[in-house]
Amino acid sequence: MLRRTVSSPLGVASGILLALILLLAIFAPLLWTAQANALDVINMRQGPSAKHWLGTNILGQDIFYRVLVASRLSVGLALAATAIGVGAGLVLGTAPVILGRRAGRFITSVINVAVAFPALLLALFFAVIFGVGAQGALLAVGFASAPAFARLVRTLSASVAGLDYIAAARIAGVSRFRLLTRHVLPNIGEPLIVNATIAAGDALLSFAGLSFLGLGVQAPSYDWGQLLNDGLQDIYTRPAEALGPGVAVVVAGLAFNLFGEALAVGLGNSVPRLGKLRSALAAAAAKSKAAVQQPSSRTAAGDAVLHVRDLEVAFPGGVHPVRGVSFTVHQGEAVGLVGESGSGKSLTALAVSRLLEDPAHVAAAELTLLGQDLRTAGGGTAGGGAAGGGTGAGRGRAAGALPDRELRRFLGTKAGLVFQDPMTSFNPVKRIGTQLAEVAAEHHGLSRRQAAERAVDRLRAVRIPRPEHRARQFPHELSGGMRQRAMIGMAVMGEPALVIADEPTTALDVTVQRQVLRLLKSIQAAGDMALLFISHDITVVSQVCDRVLVMYAGKIVETLSADGLAGARHPYTRALLAAVPSMETPREEPLAVIPGRPADPANLPAGCAFAARCAFASAKCRAEDPALVAGDSGHEVACWHVDQVLAVEPTAAVPADALIADPESVNAPQVAGEPS
Amino acid sequence: MMETPQAAAATDLAVTPATPSASPWLRFAARRLGQLLASALVLVTASFLIIHLIPGDPVRAALGLNASQELVNTRRAQLGLNDPLWLQYAHYLKDLFTGHFGTSISSGLPVSQVIGQRLPFTLELAGYSFVVAVLISVPIGLILGVLTRNARRPGLELAATTVTVVVAAIPGFLLAVGLIYVFGVTLHWVPVAGQSGFTSYLLPIAAMALGPIAILVRILRIEVLAALRADYVRTARAKRLPDWRVYLLHVLPNALTATLTIGGLLLSAMVAGTVLVENVFAWPGLGQTIVQSIVSKDYPVVQGIVLVYGTGVLLVNLVVDVALALLDPRSTIRES
Predict the structure, then answer these.
(1) Residues 162 to 221 of B: which have CB under 8 A from any A CB?
(2) Contacts with A349 (C-beta within 8 Å, 6 or more apart), sequence order
(3) How far apart are CA A672 and CA A280, in angstroms?
(4) pLDDT (0 to 100) of residue A2
(5) Distance of alpha carbon B302 from alpha carbon B49, whole angstroms
(6) Residue-wise over B118-143: b if at least 16 C-beta within 10 A, else e?
(7) How far apart are CA A481 and CA B119, in angstroms?
(8) Best interface-test mutation with B: which of A117, A233, A411 has the largest number of B CBs within 10 A?
(9) What is the CA radius of gyration of chain B?
(10) Residues near A286 by Cβ (< 8 Å), separated by ≥ 6?
């Protein structure tokens, strides 16, 4: 703990400061007591001068030396009070363990009540009882911090007491007292020290407060609070007399507090160095912005709802999770985007829906919804642009691009989104109805009431029973499946031409999954909407979608119709299909898996990204990346060895043991910072 | 409220029975009221015990060594100090219920009158300071959180953290001294002491509010950052709401619920903080009175004021809990 603390700049600085203060407290009275108490009758009540740096008091005593000498009493009393607080806290906090249930519960509840009162109020209360003066104030400040320590000890020892070795010791017949002293207390020492350090700072401030009020140290003794009290009367004429001890209290209090914080950081997890990471990100972002492609104004023909050409998503640091994805979704068509986690499918969905923020960098040659260019001039709206989306998607804004406000309305009404986890995707503190109504109120100009009615209507449309009642409820009052229906209802609050569903059933259990899929499908069919369905589960995709796009390492490697999955040609698609167990899968054999790990977007190979995991990979695969080539009836595939692949029996396409993973790719780390 | 997946699936299809919407609130109210009563009992008992815990004879201590034994005896009889302890406790409770807080030993005035004169000034100071602290810290915390999200503007983040840490570590009465020096002594903008007109409020309120502002800004910024990363903010953005709506309607309420807990602690600490700040500014509130009464050993007044401060803290905690329950509908259920 100490070593880690010392390695942080804050720990070093506050540690040195604290050491200096402690040294001052030890040596100042030995060195300067004479100067501090000397009466200089000629120079009474003088301002700062070369002879008296902070001036003199009413008796002509030097304020500067008095502040130095007072450090012992101030720091000493603070440390003593903390010791009393820790001691009393240990006794009170462990008493419930030793005394047994009933007395323990009484003590615990009194502590809980006492903790609710501010320490200063407790100190005042005890100051009344123990009387005015240094001794009374010492006990008062000490006992005032006792309840907080008692609770800390109680919490810490309760967490330790649940551990296995304590249970083992208890079974071995170790007495309760011995259990406490030998097993529990040594294990709560570190957090106790951290808190005691911070508490010492607080005690120092409390003591200064009590002495300042005239309830603590009494003349002729003096601590910083007492000096401050003396000095405040003359703050108009000689401010230095009050400011000197004031600054001393603040500096000493800060030293204790900051060192305690640094200890706490050293004790906990090491804090990431955001500063450095940040500048690296910024530099990389600037570099990648230079390579934005020129937009073309040509839009997709026919009934295309969503048209994407050469979509790229990059993160600073050379991470390139989406690399030139192109596809089109037509009216009434359901298209599935399938791939392992890390394949870039979710990022594609977020980029298409303009929801990626800095530091993600999005670029596309074409990105249109109903023929409308979705690329903005970048930067989003004024004030930081959270909703505006990533910077620089087609920096040279195309001719048909909309102003930000209208783009928002266009997307808000024409594109609906359904997210993965209905538990976290609803705002927990707002009613379901309100969250749905928000869309209509914002984009359709409906009144509050009309919007609320529309929300209830949509909840009914997604077959939520008693929608009026549910609209008034909070998200936590709905089951997971019902929440996801409500989410779908929210996506169709407008008259969307496109619904993008990003793993909409992954967080649900299997029975509910089926219902939600059926609902999504029927809503889509009823509204003749286009659906972009993202999933890692190829069977789910084949149930819902007309066409399947298979993604690997940020590229589409195969597109095929959902009916034609059996005729898949890419080894990766085949591997995904083979990994799905069916009723006929022999149970005595291990399930087929795809060996190795998904490619690391930060460290992609030169050739085909799947080569390292592919049984058919050749030297050509490792050198050259195959392009997506169109075959018969819209079937496209990016593989050099389609013929070989087709020659193998599909079910046995990827026997798990036949594939030997490239050790490099196995060890490749997962990309950080990519939303799942 | 925990449902098994199967149960969740079942309720999904079936018409769900009416949820008992009133009962969690009733349970919350009952639990919270019980807590309040228990705390009040501890407070009253502690206040009662003051006079019995001090070493020696409290009346002798208050009247001084020169007072005659007869006077001391008379006062002891008046205060009922010769009765058995349980009877005194019963009398004390009865007096409190009938609004009798006793009589000041030094001035002979009823304690309720002393408190009645001084309390409004303290309430004013604490109340204004809290309102000012909230009004200033909430927008600053929100804006700082938005500006420094996704590790943007590291310089601003470092500056904000440094300033808030340092300011938060300085207690109010020392800030008061610094403020007096800068604005009263050096700049002559405001009076340094007393309670006379609008300008005399500025420094005491600033001294009271600056520390809490620093703490609240720090916490709120972190909570805003956490909320900005949440899925529901992405949902709100997917609805294409304007930025300000996302921040004010979706981020802020969630950030506030977490901040409110700390805010409550700060507010109750403010009740105690008034004692010191009042004494710096010669503010005619309870803080000066309690210190004078402690020094002059006027125990009935001390007992009365301890009760007032304690009650203030308990009420603040109650208000915060209720506000938390209203703001975050999950919290009422989570606890039960």
Answers:
(1) 165-166, 169-171, 173-174, 177-178, 180-181, 184-185, 192
(2) A337, A500, A502, A532, A534
(3) 15
(4) 61
(5) 12
(6) bbebbbbbbeebbebbbebbbebbbb
(7) 55
(8) A117
(9) 26
(10) none
Which residues share a beta bridge with A338?
A: A535, A550
| Token representation of residue A189 | 């020492």
Closest CA to B204 of B114, B273, B146, B119: B273
Cβ atoms of B215 and B168 closer than 8 Å? yes
H or E element: which one contains B188?
Answer: none
Say how far apart CA A300 and CA A307 lie, in whole Å: 6
Please answer whether residues A231 and A241 qualify as being in contact, where contact means their C-beta atoms are separated by less than 8 angstroms. yes
Count CA atoms closer than 13 A to A162's CA, side-chain side.
Answer: 5
Report d(CA A72, CA A664) in Å as an integer: 63
Which class for A266: exposed (0-12), middle (13-18), buried (19 or more C-beta within 10 A)? buried
Q: Residue A319: helix, strand or coil by DSSP?
A: strand
Does any CB of chain B come closer than 8 Å to the CB of residue A402?
Answer: no
Strand bridging mode A547-552 / A636-637: unpaired
Residue-wise pLDDT for A425-472, tens only, equals 898 888 999 999 988 888 888 888 999 999 999 899 888 999 999 999
- Cα separation, A212 vs A182, whole angstroms: 42
pLDDT band for B110, please (50, 70, 90 cuts). Answer: very high
Let me know the angle formed at the C-alpha of A395 by A390 and A398, rounded to the nearest 5 degrees.
110
Element (H, E) at A338: strand A334-338
d(CA A486, CA A480): 10
Q: What is the mean pLDDT of residues A353-381?
A: 77
The closest alpha carbon to A330, from A308, A309, A304, belongs to A304
- Phi/psi for B255 (5° steps) reads -70, -35
- CB-CB contact of A315 with A360 (8 Å): yes
A55 in Cβ contact with A238 (< 8 Å): yes
Mutate to test the interface with A, among B2, B3, B12, B336 (most CBs of A within 10 A): B12
* Rounded alpha-carbon distances, angstroms, from residue A385 to A115, A531, B221, B298: 44, 27, 18, 62
For residue A56, the SS3 value is strand
Cross-strand bridge partners of residue B110: B103
- What is the four-CA torsion angle of B289, B295, B296, B298, rounded to 10 degrees? 60
- Summarize the confidence of residues B20-31 as an average pLDDT: 73
Exposure of B321 in the CB half-sphere (CA atoms within 13 A): 19
pTM for this structure? 0.77
Name the token pair of A409: 């309305």
Closest residue in B to A128 (Cα–Cα): B294
Tell whether B286 is within 8 A of chain A (Cβ).
Answer: no
Q: Which structure tokens are listed for A667?
A: 């060890």
E strand map for A573-649: 629-630, 636-637
ipTM: 0.84
Locus of tokens 């407290």:
A25
Beta strands in A15-62 (DSSP E): none
Would you say residue A180 has pLDDT above 80?
no
Residues near A545 by Cβ (< 8 Å), separated by ≥ 6? Answer: A334, A335, A336, A531, A533, A562
**Cβ B238 vs Cβ A418: under 8 Å:** no
Instruction: Read off the pLDDT of each residue in A659-673 and give the average, rounded to a whole number.
Output: 38
Strand partners, A362: A313
